[in-house]
């Protein structure tokens, strides 16, 4: 036995695989970087200048709040022992004995009538501490994605109340039902790495939240230019590269499935980005950075339900559909629907995540390869494209999507209506006109902005008024130069 795995070493138990543990911690860090600082940067830069601080802070707060709630209560609600067929028993996950033990997921299993195990739990070769943190990063990014729908007007205090409540009553239900040993898990719904639990969930919840919070002021809806396009690309880059941990970490091992998942993930993202950009050029005459980022996100969300379970040519097909169907839903269907136009989804999270996640889940039901499923799933299955009982899998995918969508509509609505009793969901009109300074007493840049051309006369006049108010002995020389007497 290698000295590194000597059982006499207290920090290296016999079951621990250092390679798997190292990869899982790396994957968790990559997913964490998607949120902090990835989405913090993306949100801060993609919005109007006056909302940069508020948008970044919503993501930052959610990341921190979710972690505390996760170890206090929510990990076991999502992956612990069964309380209900769709919900686990909550409890703390910070006991050192528990965290040092070998990981096991899910903790609740079901038995057949003859006493045999219906679906065995997975026991990765790393400790529970690694698993708890890895799953936290998924919970955090899901909650932050919901924020994208309500940027630019939600009361920050209402958001601070919303985050833990939505995590408890919405996210944990979806995670337990599909991943944690719930009824959809045992029925055989496939969600390889979060197409339903994360993307469909956040997209639907974001849309519902946008409805109840209400729209931005009309001026912001009509003109909402990003304040820093280059920083947008930096945030989007962290999101894209972090997705290798997102889908590469889902098998809980550095194995064949993780390698295939990483390749398929990046290929789908690239294909979707190119398709979205091509459609922009065809219909609008020019490509845009925002459009390219949206295409990238839809490709990533679309491949997530089956990244390690599909052949690479299927990842390209998913990329093509992920770059075109969400584009059409946003650019065509949205403009023809009174309901969709009424709801002000700031960053179009419904289209880029819910539509793409649903599309990916359905296409996984079509293209899940039986050999790849055998490598990764407790119970082998196949997509409809490969015959056999694949048609049943497609039906399961549709039912699983319907449950996640309906639960998020109901739970998000009830949570926001409860918060509204105590805290206004939307900022006051005066605060909406001011932005960050009213909400936080801070501003992102000491610059003029929001895309206007520099008006020297207007800014000199404002400077002169400020100086007069501050020092009565100032007088003005030629061309606006200020002279102290």
UniProtKB/TrEMBL annotation:
Lipid bilayer topology: Multi-pass membrane protein
Organism domain of life: Eukaryota
InterPro entries to which the protein is assigned, alphabetical: Ammonium/urea_transptr, Ammonium_transpt, Ammonium_transpt_CS, NH4_transpt_AmtB-like_dom, RhesusRHD
SUPFAM superfamilies per the UniProt record, alphabetical: Ammonium transporter (SSF111352)
A molecular-function term among this protein's GO annotations: ammonium channel activity
Keywords: Ammonia transport, Membrane, Transmembrane, Transmembrane helix, Transport
UniProt domain Ammonium transporter AmtB-like: residue ranges: 23-445
Keyword Glycoprotein: no
Presence of keyword Nucleus: no
Transmembrane annotation, as ranges: 23-44, 56-78, 132-151, 163-184, 196-214, 226-246, 252-276, 288-307, 313-334, 346-368, 398-419
Location within or outside the cell: Cell membrane
Signal sequence segment: none
Pfam families linked: Ammonium_transp
GO cellular component: a single term: plasma membrane
Family listed: Belongs to the ammonia transporter channel (TC 1.A.11.2) family.
Name the UniProt record assigns to this protein: Ammonium transporter
């Amino acid at each position: 036995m290698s000295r590194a795995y000597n059982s006499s070493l207290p920090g290296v138990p016999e079951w621990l695989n250092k390679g798997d543990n190292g990869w899982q911690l790396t994957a968790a860090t990559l997913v964490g970087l998607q949120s902090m600082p990835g989405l913090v940067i993306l949100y801060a830069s993609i919005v109007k200048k006056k909302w940069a601080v508020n948008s970044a802070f919503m993501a930052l707060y959610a990341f921190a709040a979710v972690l505390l709630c996760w170890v206090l209560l929510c990990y076991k609600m999502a992956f612990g022992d069964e309380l209900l067929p769709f919900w686990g028993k909550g409890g703390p996950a910070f006991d050192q004995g528990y965290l040092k033990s070998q990981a096991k997921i899910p903790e609740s299993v079901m038995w057949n009538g003859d006493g045999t195990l219906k679906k065995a739990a997975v026991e990765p070769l790393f400790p529970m501490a690694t698993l708890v943190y890895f799953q936290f990063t998924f919970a955090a990014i899901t909650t932050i994605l919901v924020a994208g729908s309500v940027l630019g007007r939600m009361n920050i205090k209402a958001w601070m109340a919303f985050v833990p409540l939505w995590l408890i009553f919405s996210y944990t239900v979806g995670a337990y039902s599909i991943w944690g040993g719930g009824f959809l898990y045992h029925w055989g719904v496939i969600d390889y790495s979060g197409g339903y639990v994360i993307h469909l969930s956040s997209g639907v919840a974001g849309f519902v939240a946008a409805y109840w919070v209400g729209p931005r002021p009309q001026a912001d809806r009509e003109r909402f230019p990003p304040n820093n396009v280059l920083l947008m690309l930096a945030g989007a880059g962290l999101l894209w590269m972090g997705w290798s941990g997102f889908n590469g970490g889902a098998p809980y091992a550095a194995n064949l499935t993780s390698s295939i998942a990483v390749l398929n993930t990046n290929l789908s993202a690239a294909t979707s980005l190119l398709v979205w950009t091509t459609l922009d050029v065809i219909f609008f005459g020019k490509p845009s950075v925002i459009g390219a980022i949206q295409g990238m996100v839809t490709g990533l969300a679309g491949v997530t339900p089956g990244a390690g379970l599909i052949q690479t040519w299927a990842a390209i097909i998913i990329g093509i559909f992920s770059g075109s169907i969400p584009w059409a839903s946003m650019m065509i269907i949205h403009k023809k629907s009174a309901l969709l136009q009424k709801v002000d989804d700031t960053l179009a999270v419904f289209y880029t995540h819910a539509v793409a996640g649903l599309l990916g889940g359905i296409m996984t039901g079509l293209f899940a390869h039986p050999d790849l499923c055998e490598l990764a799933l407790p119970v082998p299955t196949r997509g409809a494209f490969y015959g056999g009982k694949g048609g049943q899998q497609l039906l399961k995918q549709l039912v699983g999507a319907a449950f996640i969508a309906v639960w998020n509509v109901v739970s998000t609505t009830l949570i926001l209506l409860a918060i509204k009793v105590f805290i206004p969901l939307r900022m006051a009109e005066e605060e909406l006109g001011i932005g960050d300074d009213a909400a936080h007493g801070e501003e992102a840049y000491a610059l003029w902005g929001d895309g206007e051309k520099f008006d020297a006369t207007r800014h000199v006049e404002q400077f002169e008024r400020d100086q007069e108010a501050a020092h009565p002995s100032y007088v003005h020389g030629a061309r606006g130069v200020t002279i102290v007497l």
